[in-house]
Amino acid sequence: MGKAKGPREGVYPFVPLEFERLAVEEQRRRAAEFEARLKSRRTTRHFSTDPVPRELIEAAVRIAGRAPSGANRQPWHFVVVADPGIKRKIREAAEAEERENYQHRFPGDWLEALAPLGTDWHKPFLEEAPYLIVVFRQDYGRERQADGSERKVKHYYVQESVGIACGFLIAALHWMGLVSLTHTPSPMGFLSRILKRPANEKPYLLIPVGYPARNAQVPDIPKKPLAEIMTLLG
Fold first, then answer.
1. Which listed site, 48, 70, 116, 185, has its alpha carbon 20 to 30 Å from 128?
2. Structure pTM?
């Protein structure tokens, strides 16, 4: 049996794949159940301040950490923020950037695309949501050597890997009965500064998480049908 070299261990041992081949009807049932559940997933900007059990957030991050990644480098780090003071700092910094974006930086076509969604530079959800999950991409790893020095470890397909992990995270949060928002204030450098992250990490996504407010509303927007997003060959 061939063996693959790992980034640190030198060689990974191979173990039997744990896999249960399901009957086709069970596969169809699971597919329908998962699709129905994910069909109800919506992004919201209206959060309840009701507390969320921390173990749910930890479970969602563990699930995100199961995502595949280039050469198994797992180039991500998730900073979970519950501290009201830190959330306040993040909101203030995000609103400062977004105010500048909406008033001066965003081109007209982008503002036109955003208009039907009713968004603006005000971001109260950054304080209202019980948790903010700030996803950082790790452009390279840092490995401590025996002599105390540190060497860089190359990461591969970082953007793709972190994007997949975020997909796992969002699906997990919805599956366990929480709502989330994918927020990308631009630029996002303030997150590195406020959260004191190392130089090899860059902000990727800011995800408020919690329960929806009782009066939460979402725009009635469609998703493209299967015929527009899939091409079947053969």
1. 116
2. 0.89
